[in-house]
Amino acid sequence: MYTAKDTLRLAKRYNNTKRPYLFVNPLQAKHIPVSPTESLNMMNALGKKLSEKYPKTKLIIGFAETATAIGAAVAECFSLNCVYVHTTRESVPRVIEWIRSAEEHSHATEQKLIGDYLGGWISATDSVIFVDDEITTGKTLINLIGQLRAKYPQLNKKQVVVASLLNRVSAVDEQRLADANIACEWLVKVPEDDYSVAVQKIPIHAAATVEPVALDMAYQALFCENFHDPRTGTYIGKYKHSCEEVAETFLVQFAYKIERGASILVLGTEECMYPALKVGEVLERMGQNYQVRCHATTRSPIGISDKSGYPIPSGYKIKSFYEDGRETYIYNLTKYDVVIVVTDTALSGFDALENLAGAFCNDKPPQLFYIRNGKNVWYTRDR
């Protein structure tokens, strides 16, 4: 049984006038490093609840970027041929049609959902479950679902569910969802406090910038062809298996180079969170006494503060792995023996990796491994 004490910390957004606060879930593997097994257990708890109540569901839709792993972990709890797809803000080649929507309080407002196969997926399921990390009013979801119902009339005959780890939907907004024939499910109900007032007096500053570090033969890279892309939709059985294959391939190539008992960070990049969690989970189960933690880079600018109990005491501004010129962030770094970066970027350069490496500069830089979508497997020699 999860509670708000387990899953809710309150942070202050940096320079966001739409909504000044941010819910930070310490078990979500986004902003705060956490055991991958603990993180996946929490996400699966929501999935098991949903699979018991809506067992014939064959379409799960997650939301980028924070809920991409949650949606996948929820879909795991259904049949292997359940389709998992998530919204994206990235450029994706060969997509003919996008369904676009906007988030009212987000720093990066536009999301898009692939429309190429959506009609068929909707027709093939008894219910459609939309998965997010937290739901506050449900307005964004009501707008998107209304848009989808207009475009795909068959959705009007399906059970529509919105589900989240955290829910602070008021009774009025919950009734609005019910009036729109949308069921609302959650793992944890959050108190209806005034969180804007709660963060008002917290002193914050911006994330620090870092200098890139030249990586000349200072890292080892693994390029894997078996990355499935949930932005265009995939069967969850295939997606899970492909992530486990990536993990197993990494172990075959590199595990012997990692000392027993090492502290390991497996870092996802923006929307690519689930593959990093699966790599971390496999490492955690190896029986080598590894101290494994997972989290991910993010587009979200969050205020840094040393106030006691504040969840984001440190952070860095770094280059995106997905787009030149885009600023992203990484929070709550500490020292590790090993850092494994897992990304599905299509960019061929290493600028973002070099920039990220600058955040780990200390007396003894960690072993650095880079797992990326690609057509071959290769690595540099050790330092």
What does this structure look like?
The protein is of the alpha/beta class. 26% of the residues lie in helices and 25% in strands. α2 packs across α3, α2 (36-53) packs across α9 (274-284) and α8 (236-254) crosses α9. The longest helix has 19 residues, at 236-254.
> How are the strands ordered across the major sheet?
9-8-7-3-4-12
CA-CA gap between termini: 46 Å
| Coarse structural class | alpha/beta
* Residue share in β-strands: 25-35%
Low-confidence residue ranges: none
- Radius of gyration over alpha carbons? 20 Å
On the 0-100 scale, what is the average pLDDT?
A: 92
Order of helices and strands: HEEHEHEEEHEHEHEHEEEHEHEEEEHE
Question: How many β-strands, per DSSP?
Answer: 18
Number of discrete helical segments: 10
Helix content: 25-40%
Largest sheet: 6 strands, mixed
How would the global form be characterised?
A: globular
Keywords summarizing the entry:
383 residues; 18 strands; six-stranded mixed β-sheet; 25% strand; five-stranded parallel β-sheet; alpha/beta
What's a concise summary of this model?
The chain is α/β, with parallel strands linked by helices. The protein is built from ten helices and 18 strands.
Write the layout of secondary structure elements.
Blueprint: H1 4-7, E1 9-12, E2 21-24, H2 36-53, E3 59-62, H3 68-75, E4 83-86, E5 98-102, E6 110-114, H4 118-123, E7 127-135, H5 139-151, E8 159-167, H6 171-179, E9 182-189, H7 195-199, E10 208-209, E11 220-224, E12 234-235, H8 236-254, E13 263-268, H9 274-284, E14 291-296, E15 315-319, E16 327-331, E17 338-343, H10 351-358, E18 367-373
Parallel strand pairs: 3-4, 3-7, 7-8, 8-9, 10-15, 11-18, 13-14, 13-17, 17-18
Antiparallel strand pairs: 1-2, 4-12, 5-6, 15-16
Helix pairs in contact: 2-3, 2-9, 8-9
